[in-house]
Amino acid sequence: MIKDVLTHARTRMDAAVEDCRRKLAAVRTGRASPSLLDQITIEYYGTPMPLTQLAQVHAPEPTLLTVQPYDPSLLSVIERAILTSDLGLTPSNDGRIIRIPIPPLTEERRRQLAKVVGEIAEDHRTAVRNIRRDANERLKKMCKDKLISEDDERRALEEVQKLTDAAIERINELAKKKEEELLGR
């Protein structure tokens, strides 16, 4: 039973770290990256779908993204979605493909994005701590209900803390890398 609690906590913490990695990848740096457009969804036959399922996204140059829709009739819809997103990008299309120039970031914008990176990391650290709290509560309840001994509970609580520390360390490393990428250190 302790193993189930630990496995469940580890799985949830790994998911939180992976979600942090995805969200940080979507934060814009000075280079063009197809993951910049990951959060953009397009209304397709009444269903919101991720842009990546409706088009090929490439970064042929460090300062340019190209989007080639599988269905050419979506060209203007995709262009409008990119324009109205909070990415601050201005796409242009030639009737077949959308080109999105990635302007260099100003120092002020870099600092704002570094704050966003910090907020994303803190949200995910909080999520990991909440997972720890849930696992600890389950272990304490198991001990109270005499399903496990106090020694087993203590060892399991230590194991949960080790999992927590490892997950938070991975989140901190991801955030540090992204900040360095943004601030050019």
Name the features:
185 residues; 15% strand; alpha+beta; Gyrase A, domain 2; Topoisomerase I, Chain A, domain 4; two-stranded antiparallel sheet; 5 helices
Q: Would you write up a description of this structure?
A:
By secondary structure, this protein is of the alpha+beta class. It has two domains: 2-25 and 106-183, Orthogonal Bundle (Topoisomerase I, Chain A, domain 4), CATH 1.10.132; 34-101, Gyrase A, domain 2, CATH 3.30.1360. Helices cover 59% and strands 15% of the residues. The chain has five helices and six strands, in the order αββαββαββαα. The protein has helices at 2-25, 51-54, 75-84, 107-144, 150-183, and strands at residues 41-44, 47-50, 55-61, 64-69, 92-93, 98-101. The strands form two sheets. A four-stranded antiparallel sheet has the order 3-4-6-5. It has a two-stranded antiparallel ribbon with strand order 1-2. The mean pLDDT is 88.
Question: In the CATH scheme, what's the topology name of the largest domain?
Answer: Topoisomerase I, Chain A, domain 4
Q: Please report the total strand number as a whole number.
A: 6
How many domain regions? 2
The arrangement of helices and strands along the chain is HEEHEEHEEHH
Cα-atom radius of gyration: 22 Å
The main β sheet shows up as: 4 strands, antiparallel
**Unreliable stretches covering 5 or more consecutive residues:** none
**Name of the CATH first level of the largest domain:** Mainly Alpha
CATH superfamily of the largest domain: Ribosome-recycling factor
Strand order of the largest sheet: 3-4-6-5
Helix content: 55-70%
Give the percentage of residues in beta strands.
5-15%
Estimated structural class: alpha+beta
Rough outline: elongated
Number of helical stretches of at least 4 residues: 5
Name the CATH architecture of the largest domain.
Orthogonal Bundle
Overall mean confidence score, pLDDT: 88
Terminal Cα span: 47 Å
